[in-house]
Every structure is written in C-alpha cells, then in structure tokens.
Fold:
Amino acid sequence: MPFTANRQFKKSPRMFVAAKDMHYTTSDGRQVLDGTAGLWCVNAGHARPKIVEAIGKQAAELDYAPAFQMGHPKAFELANRIVDIAPDGLDHVLFTNSGSESVETALKVALAYHRAKGDGSRFRLIGRERGYHGVNFGGISVGGIVSNRKMFGTLLTGVDHLPHTHNLSKNAFSRGEPANGVELADELERIVTLHDASTIAAVIVEPVAGSTGVLIPPPGYLKRLREITKKHGILLIFDEVITGYGRLGTPFGADYFDVVPDIMVTAKGLTNGVIPMGAVLVSAEIHDAFMTGPEHLIEFFHGYTYSGNPIASAAGLATLETYKEEGLLTRGAELAKVWEDALHSLKGEPHVIDIRNIGLVGAIELEPIAGQPTKRAFSAFLNAFEQGYLIRTTGDIIALSPPLIISESQIGELIDAVRKALRSID
Ligand code: PXG
Structure:
C-alpha cells in the first residue's frame, strides 16, 4: 500500500466502501466525515451528480482516443476552461495523469525551454527544503523530504534547495500568513551567486507547502522570489497540486498571493480526485519558444498514453462546472474566518505547539513523544477515525483540508473531534 504502515493496516484494516458529499461509509457501516477531501483532492465533495453523469456518458460516447498525433474536442475544451480560471499570462496546457507527472512535465518544459532559446547552460533546478513535489525522480530531487529521498541514490544532479519558511519559535499560533521570515527569499540570491544565474533553469515551490504540514509563507515572500527569478531570467514554477482549484479561497494560490509564475503545476482538484488527471499551465512565451522548425516535426518530445484522456477530460469539465455553479473556488474565503476561529480554539489543548491556517487548510502541530516521532499524531488519527472523522497526519502534524462544501456546523464537529482526540491520547 502507498505511504501506509502496511503491517499495522493489515492487522486492522480501515476500509471505505461508499461516499456521498461530506461523508464516507466504512465497511462496517459507519459514517465518517471527510476532513481531508480524500487526499486534498475531493474539493466539491463526493459522488457529485454532474461529474458521475459526465464520466458514464463519456465512457459510452468516446472511451479513448490516441493522445499522440490525434485529438478529441473535450481535451481542448477543458484546456480552455482551465485557462479561463487561471491567472492572466498562463494560457497553454499540457495534460498529465497525476501531480507527480505534472511536476516532471514542468521541470522538463523548463529545461527544454531554455535550450530552445539557445540558453542550454541553464540546467540547474532549485527546490526547497520540506517541499513535496510527488514521488518521481525529478520531484524527489527538487523536493525536500529526507525520507522520500534517502533510499533512492543520486537523484537528479544540478539541484539546490532554498530553506523552508517554518519557524516555530517566531511564528507559532499565527493566524494566516506568519509575520516573520520574508528575508528567507533572499537565500535565492545566495544560491544564484554560488552557481551563477546562467546555470539556473527554474525555481519550484509550493505556494503553501502542504504535505510537510501546511507551511505558510510570510507576506511578501513569494513576491520576492518572483522578483529575483525575473531579474535573473530564471523560470518560476508554482506547484499548485494542493493550492489549486479553490483550496485557499481563490482559484489558485497565485491569485491568493498575487504572484504569477511562469509555469503552474496542478492535479488533484482538477477532476475532484475522481479520475487521475493533472494539468501544467505555461505562458505563451514558453509555448511559442517551442513552435519553431519544420511543421511536420514534433516540437516537444514528451507526453503520456493517457494525456487528456477523454473520460478524465469529461470529469474535469464537469468538475469545473460544479465549482462554478456552486461558487466553490471562492467558498474557502467565505468560510476562512469560521475555519480560523475553530482551529485556533484548539490552542491550549494537550500536546498542541502550533496551529496554522490559510483558506480552508489547517494544521495542528503536536509535541512529539520523546524518541517516538509520528506516534502521537498517528494515535490522534486513529482516535478521530473511531469517532467518525477522517483527518491526515504528517510527522506529528495534523493536517485538515475538508471539501469546500463543508458547512459551518460540520467545521465545528470536525474540530471538536480533534479536541476530543487530543484529550484522549497519550
Ligand atoms: N505536488 C504537490 C504539491 C503535492 O501535494 C504532488 C505534487 C504529487 O501528486 P500525485 O498525484 O502524484 O500524488 C502532491 C501530492 C498528504 C498527501 O496527505 C499529499 C499528496 C499526496 C498524497 C497525500 O500530504 N500530495
């Protein structure tokens, strides 16, 4: 099983057999409130009729069309709908089948773009400590999670990392963006000085680091990264696999922070998690740099059997339609205050050393049990599950990211379940 304590799970399996709106049904018939939108992806809630219908209809109408040298209308339609909601300046789309593939695609576009422009000495990629960019080789190379990297050899060469922005001693219990740490963006200047700008292709960061426990940047941090990258001709890639499609109360993290990257990596919420799909958005300038040479030749040697798969495209279109009809891409902003207050009401509960929130994302960091890291948070996870609430843990951090359809009373319920779990565990 992926990223799972396999032996523990098999001794005591936790199985879902159905889901509707905010709830799962377990194999023993219990209802479990989804506090994590699956794995940060089911933004519109479960089994939404439009999406279910679109998938069935598409399977009967056109189940598959070759992705190379052939097309079908829904992939183009979906690309256009994504561009409609994306920040101005990002207007071409490459489809993939996951966040990890979107990351690899973005990194390859960045390298190939510089080469296409005759700037092939730009081969370095800069990620960030505690960054998560999926599990393929490019993604773990620019990522900054030691457990995901240490077993797998030399990874990509020519990679460097910015420091992360998490600072418990200065920023604990901040509401929204933490006040301290904007100067950490200037570390990029240090890295540029070390390697020389002429060797650096791109910088990739998550606007808010999700997987490593909801690390929110200080005000101005991403703007500064944008200024520095622009100054040195370095591409800026936002990995919006989690922050995309409404999670922060804006369509994308780029909108929340008012910073437009050159490349944006998305997946998860694009199809509401229902069918695997990702999309990488690039600027016209990047797209156009490839459109040279004889017209019968392939411009970019990259793509997947399932790029823009018809059923995934239909699911994506129905998902974006559902988001639009129900105002879900901005609902997080309406709920943000209630969410923030509910989360921060956990201050003072046992083990809690920090609480963080932004949009409809929250994290509760716990003091680890000495010598047994992750055990305390995992106990909280099991306790909440027994109570009928699905939460996520990463290290000793509880991460919450419910579907954007959650009601105010369900927010109260979810936070009370976490409170009860914290009071019950060692
Ligand atoms: N980039 C980011 C920022 C992600 O969060 C990926 C890439 C990879 O996506 P795929 O679709 O290849 O898994 C992710 C995925 C968690 C959790 O609970 C987070 C992810 C996946 C599963 C669990 O933190 N993020």
